[in-house]
From TrEMBL:
Lineage: unclassified sequences, metagenomes, ecological metagenomes
Name by which UniProt lists this protein: Alpha/beta hydrolase
Organism: marine metagenome
Length: 33
């Protein structure tokens, strides 16, 4: 079960970095307006 712990953490980090990327795209989109 210890092997799955880092996997969950990595998945959470991936979700966070992806959300950060989406927010940056959103900001650029708003700046275009």
């Amino acid at each position: 079960n210890a092997k799955s712990a880092p996997h969950i953490g990595g998945g959470h980090f991936y979700q966070w970095s992806r959300a950060e990327e989406l927010s940056k795209i959103l900001i650029d989109f708003i700046k275009l307006d």
